[in-house]
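User: quick one, sequence for these C-alpha cells?
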C-alpha cells in the first residue's frame, strides 16, 4: 500500500493555523463549558492501560480549554502544552485554576505546533507521552512526525470517526441541498500512515450519545466550517443563522449528538 495515498487524503482537511485561529478563539467559551460538565471520558482509562501517568512528562498539543490538562494533572502527570488559540489558552488556565491546579507549574505555550522549535525548547525525545486529542495538527504528516520526535516513548492521538448531530444535518441540507456526511475518514488514514511507517497502533473505538444546549451564536461558530467548504460571505452567514434559528426554543437550541471516536496509542 502506498503511504502517499493516505497522506494526500489526510492532508485534504489541512488548514493554515493562522486562518483557523479566529475559528478556535470563537469556540473557546463553548469548550470551557464542556470541560466544566463532568462527562464520562474513556481517554485516560485507555492510556492507563499502557502507562502509569504518575510523574510522567506529558505534552498536550492543541489542549483547547484544558480538559485534558486537568485530567492528566489529576493523574499526577507533569503537563506541558501547546495551543494555537489565545482564547482557549485563557480559558484553559481559568479552568485549571478553578480546579486547584497550579498552572505556573505547567509549561504552556500559545503558539501553533508548526512553529514549535523542538531543539530550542529542548523537547526532542523529551516526553514520556505526547498527547493530541481531536487536534487539527493530526491533519498534517509533518506535524505527526513532530509529535513522534517530541516523544521518548508513547504517543496518543484521537479523531472523530462519526459526528452525527441532528441540527447540523438539518442545517447542512437546508443550505447545501444535500445530505451531510457524518462519517470522518481521517482515523483510517492516520492509522494506515502510522502502520506503514512501522508503528503498531493500539486502537479503541468509543462512542456515546449526548445532548447539548447551545445559543445561536455558539452554533454559528460550531457549524460554519462544517457547512461551508470555502470562506463564507456575509450573505452565507445570514442564511446559516436563519437556518439555525428555525430550531430555537427560548433562545437555545437542543442538539442531539451521536459520536464515535477513534483513540490510538503507540510507542516509538
Ligand atoms: C477540537 S479542539 C480539541 C481540544 C482538546 N484537545 C480536547 O480534546 O478537548 C482542537 C484544539 O486544537 C487547537 N489547534 C488547532 N490547530 C492547532 C495548531 N496548529 N497548533 C496548536 N493547536 C492547534 C485549537 O485551537 C483547539 O483548541
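Assistant:
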Amino acid at each position: 500500500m502506498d503511504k502517499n495515498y493516505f497522506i494526500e487524503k489526510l492532508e485534504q482537511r489541512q488548514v493554515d493555523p493562522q486562518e483557523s485561529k479566529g475559528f478556535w478563539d470563537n469556540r473557546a467559551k463553548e469548550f470551557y463549558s464542556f470541560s466544566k460538565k463532568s462527562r464520562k471520558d474513556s481517554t485516560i482509562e485507555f492510556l492507563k492501560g499502557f502507562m502509569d501517568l504518575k510523574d510522567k512528562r506529558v505534552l498536550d498539543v492543541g489542549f483547547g480549554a484544558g480538559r485534558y490538562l486537568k485530567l492528566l494533572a489529576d493523574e499526577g502527570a507533569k503537563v506541558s502544552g501547546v495551543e494555537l488559540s489565545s482564547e482557549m489558552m485563557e480559558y484553559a488556565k481559568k479552568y485549571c485554576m478553578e480546579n486547584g491546579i497550579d498552572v505556573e507549574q505547567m509549561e504552556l505555550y500559545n503558539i501553533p505546533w508548526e512553529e514549535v522549535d523542538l531543539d530550542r525548547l529542548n523537547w526532542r525525545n523529551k516526553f514520556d507521552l505526547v498527547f493530541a486529542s481531536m487536534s487539527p495538527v493530526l491533519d498534517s504528516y509533518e506535524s505527526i512526525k513532530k509529535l513522534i520526535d517530541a516523544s521518548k516513548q508513547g504517543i496518543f492521538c484521537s479523531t472523530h470517526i462519526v459526528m452525527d448531530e441532528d441540527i447540523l444535518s438539518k442545517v447542512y441540507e437546508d443550505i447545501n441541498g444535500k445530505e451531510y456526511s457524518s462519517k470522518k475518514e481521517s482515523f483510517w488514514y492516520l492509522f494506515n500512515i502510522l502502520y506503514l511507517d512501522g508503528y503498531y497502533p493500539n486502537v479503541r473505538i468509543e462512542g456515546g450519545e449526548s445532548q447539548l444546549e447551545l445559543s445561536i451564536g455558539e452554533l454559528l461558530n460550531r457549524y460554519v466550517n462544517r457547512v461551508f467548504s470555502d470562506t463564507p460571505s456575509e450573505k452565507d452567514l445570514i442564511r446559516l443563522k436563519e437556518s439555525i434559528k428555525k430550531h430555537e426554543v427560548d433562545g437555545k437550541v437542543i442538539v442531539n449528538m451521536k459520536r464515535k471516536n477513534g483513540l490510538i496509542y503507540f510507542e516509538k
